[in-house]
Amino acid sequence: MAKPQGTRHQNGSQFIITAAPRIPSLDEQLTVFGRVTEGMDIVRQISSVWADEKGRPYQNVRIYHTIILADPFADPPGLVVPATSPVPEMARIERLLGDRFEDYEEVAALDPNETVADQDERIAAREARANAVVLEMLGDLPEAEARPPENVLFVCRLNATTPEADLMRIFSQFGKIISCEVIRDHYTGESLRYAFIEFDTKESCEAAYAKMDNALIDDHRIHVDFSQSVAKNKFMQFR
Prior knowledge:
Layout: H1 40-47, H2 90-97, H3 116-138, E1 152-156, H4 164-171, E2 177-184, E3 191-199, H5 202-212, E4 216-217, E5 220-221, E6 223-226, H6 231-237
Antiparallel strand pairs: 1-3, 1-6, 2-3, 4-5
């Protein structure tokens, strides 16, 4: 965790992911708050991109979506969680971007005859393909052309004591449930506090998504999202 310049014993809003096992120059300088347990190949890919003398990539690398699987700390009194991230001022966006390429831009010569619609279609197709390749590298897709199921809901931030039967009872109000799987530690059998719920129809899954995000189950505010990978199929395969 980065610290504000010129301060001690304080943390800032930036975090640093290191690719080396140890960096002595950072010892007793920055707070260690976690480690990468999966996806080090992605960290190394980010580390290998072209960068300037300050280490900033010429083409932006962005994290678009994160999900907190477990938060062991209680929310402070009066905390208001915003629905979306704050949007920075345009002047700040332009200053940060500068002369950098955005992550979706092709760093190559463009076809002068390409229309705006053609360019949008090409960028969308490339992004979809890139996302699929990343999932394949992470092991969530057996192959890049696989498609995630539209009737599976991802549920996280569960109470560790919440069983499948309770989730089945609560979520069955939205439609017939084909399967409900709380993911557990392979060795201890303890809940990892997230689950996959498979409905018989996409409409039932969408209804549950609309109503159950931030719902209170066993004193925990859960988060639900559409399953963006086929990880559920992988967990079911190796039960």
